[in-house]
Amino acid sequence: MKGFTAYLRAIWHVIQKDIRVEWRGRQGVPVMLVFSLLIVFLFNFALQLSPDLQAGLSAGLLWVSLAFASTLGLNRSVSLEHENNALDGLLLAPVDRSAIYFGKALSNFAFTFLVALILLPVFSLFYAQNMLKLPLILFILLGVGAYTSLGTLLATLSIQARTRDVLLPILLYPLALPILIAAVEGSRGALIGQPLAELQSWLFLLLASNILFHAAGLMFFETILEE
Amino acid sequence: MMMPEPHSDPARIVLAGLVKRYHNRPVLDHLSLSLEGGQFCILVGANGAGKTTLLRILATLTRPDEGEIQFFGEAWEPFPALRKKIGYIGHKPMFYLDLTAAENLHHYARLYHCDDPSEQIQTALHAAGLQNDQHKPVRTFSRGMQQRLSIARALLHEPEILLFDEPYTGLDQPAAQSLDRRLKDLRSPKRIILMSAHRPQRLLTIATHIAWLQNGIISHHLPVAELHTAPALQDYLQETA
User: What is the pLDDT of residues B33-92, one digit of tens each?
Assistant: First the structure.
């Protein structure tokens, strides 16, 4: 029990550190937000859609914005640890290394989810849709959780590569496709008011992705960091 | 997730038949070395000889391909409890540049489960001569200040094994002299210090032992006082002077 408390504390210390660095540097969330807002504005002006098409489009656009913004955040998270070999500092600490993975994954999740929460009212305004619906927020929680858990693992894998900024999207987007499909389909259903019971297959797929990728992080994080 | 109990044996490192290959080229090739508490050993060798690789293996940052390592009389495994006994100073300072010196040390103190982080941090900052700069972002620090902060970080948890990788690189004369003084203070009968140095002459009055890494093995390992018995090593030290 004492060991597990220390494990949870180590996760919290990594999250705290990431939040503090972001607060001081403000180089992650603002960039993610500007990028996602740009997508919202541009597509709003480019596409003139009938109301029945808007639900599908809003869900798709929301996830395009979140996926790209989250990838920017993941790249920032990696470069932060790469700069000055800060990751070595974490690896030297007397904590289980999977706690570092969970700390990084959770802070990446928190930053992307924060961007999503800011985006929702903007989407509501521009696409004449009420986006502040609990089922939609549930799909965002699960979708962002699965995406950032996979992304953190792949970002760590690419940390030593000189071309890591390019490598991460190349590795991440194909593997994240099932997550994005489930998230878009679930979000679309939530927006047109389908009951959750009808969307449970997408919900289960996202839940399974969360479990799978977090378990992969727990098992393989230390291995992929080994030289 | 389970953490084994920390070792209570005296500081001792034994390496036997250590092999590490990069791209099928052995950097360390059946290297053996034994270090006891109280030794301050300078690790010398040409660029690319494998000094950094050896130090990173000992710091549990790199896994060897073959060979046996014993720490404190037990087989080496990179357990969290073992890492609490090790302090490592690498080529780069391992700090978050947007955080202040105190914030960086707080982050590490928490990860190292320090009993009284605030007091230990103040003591470490005082010893590093950085107490007046503790609230400045590390980004504004000179190389010498970052190096002093690195040493403060590595000593926060009072490790018994200290590993330094070329700590003099990039330091100006006053900063190097300050590091000399700090190193003298760090010597202790309970502590092993292993330090790689490209130009080791200035350390010969501080260190107790010297080890020469060449062709993937430790070809010489002897007390500094017996250096006169190894003319080849003396010649090498002359060349690097």
Answer: 999 999 999 999 998 899 999 999 999 999 999 999 998 888 877 778 889 999 999 988
Contacts of B91 in chain A (CB under 8 A): 85
Task: Say how far apart CA A186 and CA A197 lie, in whole Å.
Answer: 11
Integer Cα distance of B86 and B78 in angstroms = 11
Range of the domain at A174: 2-225
Smallest Cα–Cα separation from A222: which of B174, B216, B63?
B63
Helices (H), B132-172: 143-155
- Chain B CB contacts of A91 below 8 Å: 60-61
Say how many C-beta atoms besides its own lie within 10 A of residue A4's C-beta. Answer: 10
Contact between A92 and B59 (Cβ < 8 Å): yes
Mean pLDDT over A145-169 rounds to 89
For the beta carbon of residue B235, count every other beta carbon within 10 angstroms: 10
**Shortest CB distance from A92 goes to which of B2, B61, B113?**
B61
pLDDT band at B9 (very low <50, low <70, confident <90, very high): low
pLDDT digit string, tens, across residues B136-190 = 999 999 988 998 899 999 989 989 999 999 988 877 788 788 888 888 888 999 9
Chain A residue whose CA is closest to B163: A92
- Partner-chain contact A84 B95, CB within 8 Å: yes
Angle at the Cα of A35 from the Cα atoms of A176 and A121, rounded to 5 degrees: 90
Number of domains in chain A: 1
Longest dimension (CA), chain B: 50
Average model confidence (pLDDT) across chain A: 91
Give me the pLDDT at residue B7, please: 52
Q: Do B227 and B233 form a contact (C-beta atoms < 8 A)?
A: yes
| Joined tokens for residue A73 | 């955040």
Q: A148 CB contacts (<8 Å, ≥6 apart)?
A: A70, A74, A105, A108, A109, A112
CA A91 – CA A88 distance, rounded (Å): 5
Closest to A78 in 3D by CA, of A54, A107, A50: A107
Residue type, A63: W
Q: Does A82 touch chain B (CB under 8 A)?
A: no
Specify the pLDDT at position B1: 44
